[in-house]
Amino acid sequence: MNISAMQQARVAAPAAATTIKMHTPEPSFQEREFAGTVGTVTVDNPKIVSRNVNVYYGDKHAIKNVSLDVGANEIVAMIGPSGCGKSTFLRCFNRMNDTIDSCRVTGEIRLDGEDIHNQKLDVVQLRARVGMVFQKPNPFPKSIYENVAYGPRIHGMTKNRAELDELVQLSLEKAGLWEEVKDRMDQPGTGLSGGQQQRLCIARAIAVSPEVILMDEPCSALDPIATAKIEELMDELRANYTICIVTHSMQQAARVSQRTAYFHMGDLVEVGETSDIFTNPRHKLTEDYITGRFG
Amino acid sequence: MLLLVLLVLSAGGYQLGRRRSLAVSADDGAAPGQRLHSLPSYYGFHTALWTGIPALILLALWIALQPIVITQLVLSDLPAEVRLLPEARLNLVISDIKNLASGNIVSAQVDPAMRAAADHYLQLQAISSAALTVVVLALALGGISIGWRLVSPEFRARNSVERMVNIFLVASSSVAILTTLGIVLSVLFEAIRFFQVVPVTEFLFGLHWSPQTAIRADQVGSSGAFGTVPLFAGTLLISAIAMVVAVPIGLMSALYLSEYANRRFRAVAKPLLEILAGIPTVVYGFFAALTVAPLVRDAGTSIGLNVASESALAAGMVMGIMIIPFVSSLSDDVINAVPQAMRDGSYALGSTRSETIKYVILPAALPGIVGGILLAVSRAIGETMIVVMAAGLGANLTANPLEAVTTVTVQIVTLLTGDQEFDSPKTLAAFALGLVLFLITLVLNVIALYVVRRYREQYE
Amino acid sequence: MSNFSDPASPAAATARSKRATDLMRQGLAARHRAERRFRRYGLIAIVLGLTFVLFLLTSISATGLPAFQQTYVELDIYFDPEEIDPEGTRLPKTLSRANYAALVRSTLRHYFPEVSERRALRELYKMVSSGAGFELRKKVMQNPELIGTTETIWVPTSDDVDMLVKGHIDRHLPESERRVSDQQIAWIDQLMARGKLEKRFNTLFFVNGDSRQPELAGIWGAVMGSVYTLLVTLSLAFPLGVGTAIYLEEFAPKNRWTDLVEVNINNLAAVPSIVFGLLGLAVFINFFGLPRSVPLVGGLVLTLMTLPTIIIASRAALKSVPPSIREAALGMGASKMQMVAHHVLPLAMPGMLTGAIIGMAQALGETAPLLMIGMVAFIVDVPGGPLDPGTVLPVQIYLWADSPERAFVEKTAAAIMVLLGFLIMMNALAVYLRKRFERRW
Question: What is the mean predicted confidence (pLDDT) over B277-282?
């Protein structure tokens, strides 16, 4: 998350945010329930429920009172200009923000009804259930095999080498990488191409059998062909996993997701069915963004 | 004093050169500074350089040579029986004369010959300094006039000043090379002379070290033994103890500070630990000899062990303490060079901090850490004061850390701090030891620096 | 296991993931224990390190603090004309050669009239430092009017008395095992009772040069030696280091030669300091014939030793000046030298100064190479310039640490405290400079 960019964006457009609200159509009662967000925040079959989440970096208020549900086996895309807080919000779901010293998260996030900030909940277990793929492919400087085997190994998820081998193969297959790397499993993961590295990272995340996969702009460092492969993969993965993806590309959000959430300067401005958002945005800011007036 | 005058003269030269340049350009009817090649101040600097540099060089040479020349002159006037004294006595006589001359000795009965010599010395000194003043001033004034005359619109003062500065820059950068060259040559030269007396094989593989050779050839045992194996064994033992102390503590504290500690704790603990790095080694030596060695000995005695009062353990432990900040700051650097993305990747899979450290960060940082440890080893091997003050003198081939051992550096110091003539095998042996020490640390450093550099490039 | 082979089946997937989750849960407690253990190791390492710092500093200051006080005895000295200047000439020569120790002795006899046996008298005389006589001489030489008058002055006692008063000599030991006799203890107690013996601030420690008598030994000679040595070092190392850094960073072409210089500088930074001492001995003393034990040679050796530190720091400072500034200056038509002199150098100067101060701090604490060039000599006089024989603070510490007298132990620790004080000041200055001029581009 680029804090300074976020700050700049806020400095640049405080006046705009207030005046633009005028253009908003009167929201229905149900929609007004969650401060300031246009559209339906809730879903019928929620995997993740978040309510009134606030995130602070030191004095900076990075996420303001955001509430959003993520349904089981659906892909939710989070879009918005740089520094709008979408990545920060994503990182709340597996408490990755804990690793940043100055970061403070308040509000309520439930995974399968269980509060993830509960003292009794183990962050280690949470992260095994909610996997994450990062913007830049970050394979460990180890062999391809070791990269995938790392997660199962630290969690003690397999009993013997044969099981582990099978799990590694399965994960790589699911990530669509097996055919390309099966002959060079002992070569360093850093030697793969960017797209392959990112799929390796996905395989790595899948290997610990997560329920949710968070993807933080997974294709921004990749070329179009690699991007297409990953998008295809996401569609396949949807059968077994719930996926949240942060993306810079509106086309990508339109292609892969069922629901889309638009973030602006720490606010969740609008959320809805992807087709609705892109064809019929209800909030002026959303409209400006998707029509390319800023971004 | 003379330096001040020179400084003033150079400043004067600057002013003159500047004025002259303005005057020259004004003569041509143009606006001041217009037609000159360079800014007036460059003409000033040029003149000032002409004033100062030749005079300074002469001054330095004069001062360096004056004592030698004067001493020789005084000596040649001394009675023959004094001149034929052995060198050590002769030096005493000379220092007596100097003391007399400076009025430090106020005793009644002074040898008239000495008195005369002292007067002669004073007189020569007076002549010399008077001559020096005159010559240097003349040179400076000559410089001014040359610089002054060179000033003309066509003259490229800036280029010439810049050329001189450039020469200075190149010269200063070659000092580093000259230093290395000086080390290698001086150490090598004396070492070769040593190896003419003592064969290399005996030096490197001999098991017995006792350099206490007799000063006169007719004494018994005039050829000492120069086998360095016990010295290197001792050095290794103490360094190994030091590393056993420093590496775990240094590495673990670096890991804790960079991976666990919050910012406030880090801001307090890190500088406090680094105090250890700023403490002079002689302080550690005193600490080792006065506090730690008795502690170790008492602790040993209380559990029924016989510990030498200059045990390798005490010296090694204190050396380890000294090296802790070295290891920890080098490790801190390499650990911080591991990209945050690696950590994120590992945390996102649900690994704990210690798992991330053990399975991701340490393997990734390993080359850098190894490089850092090699540097630390090279430092431990070359460390002098702690072992001089807290380790033993007797060469003792043992692996028992409770006994006293000696090290290469201790022997160099003991061989060279006594009053010996310079050519005895004993003093030459120190240079041979120095050569080996230099080579070992050089190899360690080259490997370590190479490894660390490769490591850094990997993540840049 | 068999259901692994059919990844597509949702049931298989659920079963597998449940099994994995169970396995994972089993291992959790052990993993958290390992985590806590590891964290504890880290904390222990830091606490150990900090304990060492604390232990070292407290042990040294506990040893050294008493040395800032010294036991003095009050003597009513009658400047006896018979003893000092029987002929009444008042010539400086006569005055300087008089037997002042006799004045001290007569006062002591006066204090304890009952003592008459020769051996007892000698013990009595030994209680006052031999420096007392010198002090009287100095007073009389300054003011000959004193002769014939009586004045009360405080003079230092001998180190043994001082040690006893400070409690470093155990008075309950059998007489044969301590350096102060029963008789002397009795006198000390009497003098104390009469208020003629007390601990006062030890000025001598700060104004005297070295001495064989611990009660007279001071650090001023070593401090001045350090000052001259550092002056030589600073005036050579700073220009040379900055020059090298500027050349390598701004002017040098990238070729084999500059690569060599660079590798060479990095290596020099890690060469053991004692090797520099060997270099100094072989080159400056044997080859150039410079005198031993002088701050000039010490300064030269330390110059070579600190040069790499200064070069590396200066280069870092130059590197931190953004290239845009250089381009701007060159774009205005400045020559490369002007660009460096007018723009880059002023911006890099604080960083360079910081590096120089750190290099000087390193040089101030260095001992080993100075041993090689003979700065270990016992020198009483305070050096008056870089060509006078002298020693430096760390070497003085080394010399005192080697001395057998008990009183030198606390002097050593006190000298260490002074040295550390200087180092702290220098480092604080460096930190201040860095904070004050820190600039982010």
Answer: 91
Query: Does A295 fall in a domain?
Result: no
- pLDDT-above-70 percentage for chain C: 95
B342 part of contact set with chain A, CB < 8 Å: yes
**Which class does domain C220-437 fall in?**
mainly alpha
Residue ranges, chain C, pLDDT below 50: 1-8
Task: Look at residue A133 and tell me if it is in a domain.
Answer: yes
Q: Where are the domains of chain C?
A: 2-65, 69-207, 220-437
Q: How far does B282 lie from chain C, in Å, by closest CA?
A: 6
Q: Among residues of chain B, what percentage have pLDDT more than 90?
A: 22
Mean confidence (pLDDT) of chain C: 86
pTM for the structure as a whole: 0.82
Give the residue-averaged pLDDT of B152-177.
Answer: 83
What domains appear along chain B, each with residue ranges and CATH number?
2-155 (no CATH), 225-458 (1.10.3720.10)
Copy the structure tokens of residue B270. 């890190």
The answer to whether B32 contacts chain A (CB < 8 Å) is: no
Torsion of CA B232, B237, B242, B248, to 10 degrees: 120
Distance from CA of A211 to the nearest CA of C (A): 9
Q: How many alpha carbons fall within 13 Å on the CB side of residue A210? A: 33
- pLDDT tens-digit map of C244-261: 999 998 888 888 888 888
- Please answer whether residues A281 and A260 qualify as being in contact, where contact means their C-beta atoms are separated by less than 8 angstroms: no
Residue B262 near chain A (CB below 8 Å): yes
SS (H, E, C) A238-262: CCCCEEEEECCCHHHHHHHCCEEEE
Q: Do A124 and C31 touch (CB under 8 A)?
A: yes
C-chain CB neighbours of B413 within 8 Å are 274, 368, 371-372
CATH number for the domain harbouring residue A182: 3.40.50.300
Which of the residues in chain A have pLDDT under 70?
Answer: 1-35, 294-295
Contact C248 B416 (CB under 8 A): no
User: Residue A49 pairs with which residues in a beta bridge?
Assistant: A69, A110
Q: Which domain holds residue A278?
A: 3-290
The kind and range of the H/E element at B209 are: strand B209-210
pLDDT at B250: 94
CB atoms under 10 Å from CB of C336, counted, come to: 15
* Contact state of A155 with C10 under an 8 Å Cβ cutoff: no
pLDDT at position C104 is 87
- Count Cβ–Cβ pairs < 8 Å, chain A vs chain C: 45
Asked whether residue A122 is domain-assigned, the answer is yes
* Portion 19-48 of C in contact with B at CB < 8 A: 31-32, 34-35, 37-39, 41-46, 48
Minimal C-alpha gap between C184 and chain B (Å) = 29
Based on the structure, what is the number of domains in chain A?
1
Nearest-Cα residue of chain C relative to residue B175? C240
